[in-house]
Specification:
Largest interface: A-B, 50 and 44 residues
Number of helices of chain A: 11
Shape of chain B: elongated
Radius of gyration of chain B: 33 Å
Structural class of chain B: alpha+beta
Structural class of chain A: mainly alpha
CATH architecture of the largest domain in chain B: Orthogonal Bundle
Number of strands of chain A: 0
Distance between the termini of chain A: 31 Å
Number of strands of chain B: 10
Number of domains of chain A: 1
Order of helices and strands of chain A: HHHHHHHHHHH
CATH class of the largest domain in chain B: Mainly Alpha
Strand content of chain B: 5-15%
Strand order of the largest sheet of chain B: 3-4-5-7-6
Oligomer: heterodimer
Helix content of chain B: 55-70%
Shape of chain A: elongated
CATH topology of the largest domain in chain B: Transferase(Phosphotransferase), domain 1
């Protein structure tokens, strides 16, 4: 993982923007950036494929095959600035791939048997099993899974920060204040951390600030420019609202 | 399949095993999203043009400064030399104007906006493009937007009704012209100094709303402004949004005005949260229907419903629900407990009068009175406590019409009156007659006092906004009034009695005239009478006053009000009384043998008043500092 971009800098290139900027020029950095992004967000794709009615085996093959072709044919060069963000690009590309694949014979070796990314299908499958088979369309399931992945990544980033500073316990205790600001009794939290309620209040505020930063960083990595971060956040919010 | 959970805060259902740390992903994301205003301010600060940069572009304007910035762009206040009036210059943020088709769309929208001519809509004088900035020259509205208004002061329901009504009129006009606002929110509702509402930014949302093009996905459409004000169909099918989306947003604004909260997830009807006319619930809920077909179809329909509510005779508080059997039972128990306590007081007093020379008989009576009094007081206290927490009782006791509480009071008064008549007709100078006489008198006095208090509560409580927003800055509308004064005074009278009881104890323990009181059984029982009587009178007074006060959140909010309220009056009276009492003590030698009782009383009374005053003073200054 590369270092986080500073959201306040405003002009620091984000990773998806790097891919967009590279265009057709296939260089190492672009490739690395893209594979990192794909490695982070492949589970939503797998969920989408499963939701389209493929069984676990076929879905594994298709997901791997999709990535293989993406890198092989340098498909991401097709993504340009006007055509949206990583999240939408990824799904659209997968939809193309699935359409193509339907026409082909299924027995064909996909991706030449080579794993492009190391994907932990067991984890994905356990998540698929947990995924509600309710009202959601495959697209919705994808969007929702994507938003959840992103939140988990951002939160993991914050947690790592805290752990590196030796404040793992503080994170554990305070993390729930993120979704319930002011609702948890500060005094109780303070007791668990052996500090004062005032200090907990400050720490909770700081965690919130850190969370905002981390979330924006994570979103900044998948949009074309800093100015799109708020819009993407709103779109993710909408995806979760359904 | 796994267990799904519904988030308490936002009402979204989610799977805890799937989301990070089992938290609601929606809320988690919301925690990371900045306040919309903050976001807007950030964006704007990054790109706001300097006035010097604009002067050559707009030579006809004398710029007076940047007055606002939002997601759309920047607003400058300026004076138009030719027109000789103050105008607002709105520059659209450049990021919106990247598409080549923007210029054409901007011209089209600006023409539509210029066509709108309505007192409730901000007028457009000029528009165009200069130096790469798309601009609108508009009427300048001297005042504040609704967001500021809500932040700075509590909006009374009557005010909310008037504001929403005016917004409806403006929306109906624009909808008739075929213009949908698409971004109704408190920030876009301006209120001028005369209280007139003017809606800004008509149709601009559509102008800056970009298309995702070939990769458009369901639900991934981008969102302008605050997501919470958007109708469900605006998320799902942004292309097919019509004027009913404005009506939904209006419903959100209305809900927020009434309750101070957003209608998120499974939200309560406004009257469940605050004391407002129940008929407003229907209006708000109908505007907030998820299906556009089930919503109000025209803004004018909202307005006419509001008009009929506002003009109908008298307020209709939410007290039409019949009381539950449990509440009635508790009310009867409370009355019964009070009756027991009053009888105990009467019994003790009468025993003291008739048997003061027959210690064993008197003590037996006192024992019975003590048991009866404590039992009755406990029963009354617990019943009153339980009753005070029952929503149906609270609603009913704030209501104005004749209710079952009145029935209970009438019954209580009748018992007292009958007792009084019986006592007058029966043999005088008999202990039983006198007991009945005293108990009936107390009951009657209580019933009358309770009735007077109820008149005050119902007058104060009916249809008042009792939004419990401790953080809202100004409670200046809570004026000093008789009801608060009376409640506060009853409370302090109670305190007075309790202090007197304490004074008796102190006088017994402290040596007087060089000799210390010996605690023989006789002496102790002689002391218990005044102590018991004072406590029996003082404690119910305090408890009753507190509970009546707490019944109305409005009176409760008066406690923390930065402006003087009835509490302050009562406080002042009590402090003065204590001081006066202290002076009288020094002047009257006849009281000198009871020096300790009264000295303790005055000292404690004064200390208590000062303490309360200080607490109120500090909370007031804290608020002032915070503001």
């Amino acid at each position: 993982m590369t270092d986080s971009t500073n959201p306040r800098a405003g002009f620091a290139p984000t990773r998806w923007s790097l891919v967009l900027a590279a265009g057709k020029h296939d260089d190492e950095r672009t490739r690395a950036a893209l594979s990192e992004l794909c490695a982070a967000y492949w589970v939503p794709l797998y969920v989408y494929v499963r939701r389209r009615g493929h069984d676990a085996h076929a879905a594994e093959d298709l997901t791997q095959g999709f990535f293989a072709r993406l890198f092989e044919r340098n498909d991401f060069a097709a993504a340009d600035r006007n055509r949206g963000r990583f999240r939408t690009f990824l799904l659209a590309a997968l939809q193309h791939y699935l359409a193509d694949e339907r026409d082909r014979e299924r027995a064909l070796k996909r991706g030449g048997g080579v794993s492009t990314l190391s994907l932990d299908f067991e984890r994905a499958d356990s998540q698929w099993n947990l995924e509600p088979a309710t009202d959601a369309t495959p697209e919705r399931a994808y969007e929702r899974r994507f938003a959840n992945e992103l939140l988990a990544r951002a939160l993991a980033r914050v947690e790592r920060d805290y752990r590196e500073r030796g404040e793992a316990k503080a994170f554990e205790v305070l993390v729930l204040t993120l979704t319930a600001p002011g609702e948890l009794p500060y005094r109780e939290l303070a007791e668990r951390l052996a500090t004062t309620a005032g200090a907990v209040k400050v720490a909770a505020h700081r965690l919130r600030e850190r969370w905002r930063e981390a979330l924006r960083d994570e979103v900044a990595a998948i949009v074309g420019s800093q100015s799109e971060v708020d819009d993407e956040l709103a779109a993710l919010f909408a995806a979760l609202a359904s | 399949m796994t267990e799904r959970r519904t988030c308490r805060r936002c009402g979204t259902s989610f799977e805890p095993t799937q989301s990070p740390h089992g938290m609601c992903p929606q809320c988690l994301l919301a925690a990371g999203m900045r306040e919309p205003e903050e976001v807007a301010a950030r964006k704007a600060v990054e790109r706001a043009p300097a006035v010097e940069e604009l002067v050559p572009l707009f030579p006809e304007l004398d710029f007076e400064g940047l007055v606002g910035q939002g997601g759309m762009g920047f607003v400058f206040r300026a004076r138009h030399r030719e027109l000789g009036r103050t105008v607002a210059l709105k520059l659209l943020a450049r990021e919106h104007a990247v598409e080549p088709s923007f210029a054409e769309r901007f011209r089209r929208e600006a023409r539509t906006l210029a066509r709108l001519s309505h007192p409730g809509i901000v007028a457009i004088f000029d528009s165009g493009e200069r130096g790469g900035w798309f601009y609108l020259l508009m009427e300048f509205v001297e005042g504040a937007n609704l967001r500021h208004l809500m932040k700075s002061a509590r909006v009374e329901p009557a005010q909310a009704l008037s504001i929403v009504g005016q917004v409806c009129a403006a929306l109906q006009y624009s909808h008739d012209q075929g213009v949908v606002h698409r971004d109704i929110k408190p920030e876009n509702v301006l209120i001028d100094v005369a209280g007139h509402v003017k809606i800004a930014d008509f149709g601009l949302a559509r102008l800056v709303d970009r298309d995702l093009g070939a990769f458009a996905l369901t639900g991934s459409h981008q969102v302008m402004g605050t997501p919470h004000y958007m109708a469900p169909e605006q998320w799902e099918k942004p292309q097919s949004v019509d004027h009913r989306a404005d009506i939904y947003a209006l419903g959100v604004v209305f809900y927020e005005l009434l309750t101070g909260e957003m209608p998120l997830g499974r939200f309560d009807a406004p009257s469940k949260r605050v004391q407002v006319d129940v008929r407003l619930d229907e209006v708000v809920l109908k505007a907030l229907e998820k299906q556009p077909e089930r919503r109000y179809q025209q803004a004018s329909e909202v307005q006419s419903d509001l008009d009929s509510i506002a003009s109908s005779a008298g307020p209709v508080p939410n007290d039409e629900e019949p009381p539950t059997v449990a509440s009635i039972t508790w009310a009867v128990m409370e009355g019964f407990g009070l009756l027991m306590a009053f009888t105990a007081i009467a019994l003790a007093k009468v025993a003291d009068l008739h048997f003061h020379d027959q210690t064993p008989t008197r003590n037996a009576y006192w024992g019975a009175a003590l048991g009866l009094g404590i039992g009755g007081a406990l029963l009354a206290f617990t019943s009153h406590h339980t009753l005070g927490r029952r929503a149906d009782f609270r609603r009913a006791s704030r209501g104005r019409g004749f209710m079952w509480t009145d029935g209970a009071l009438a019954l209580f008064g009748a018992v007292g009156a009958i007792g009084l008549i019986c006592a007058l007709l029966s043999k005088p100078n008999h202990p039983a007659t006198e007991t009945v006489w005293l108990a009936s008198a107390l009951t009657l006095v209580y019933a009358v006092a309770a009735w007077i208090l109820r008149q005050f509560t119902s007058r104060r409580g009916a249809r008042v906004d009792v939004r419990p927003r401790a953080s809202s800055a100004s409670d200046s509308h809570v004026h000093s009034n008789g009801a608060l004064f009376l409640f506060g005074f009853v409370h302090f009278i109670g305190v007075h009695f309790v202090i007197s009881a304490a004074g008796v104890v102190v006088s017994a323990l402290v040596p007087s005239n060089g000799a210390r009181l010996r605690l023989t059984p006789d002496n102790v029982s002689a002391l218990l009478w005044p102590i018991g009587l004072e406590l029996l009178m003082g404690l119910p007074c305090m408890v009753a006053a507190w509970h009546v006060l707490r019944l109305s959140s409005r009176t409760a909010s008066a406690w923390t009000s930065p402006t003087p309220t009835g509490f302050d009056g009562a406080l002042g009276v009590f402090a003065l009384a204590s001081a006066g009492f202290a002076i009288a003590l020094v002047q009257l030698p006849a009281w000198s043998d009871q020096w300790w009782i009264y000295a303790t009383h005055c000292a404690l009374g004064l200390a208590l008043s000062l303490w309360f005053a200080r607490r109120r003073w500090t909370s007031r200054t804290q608020r002032a500092v915070a503001a």
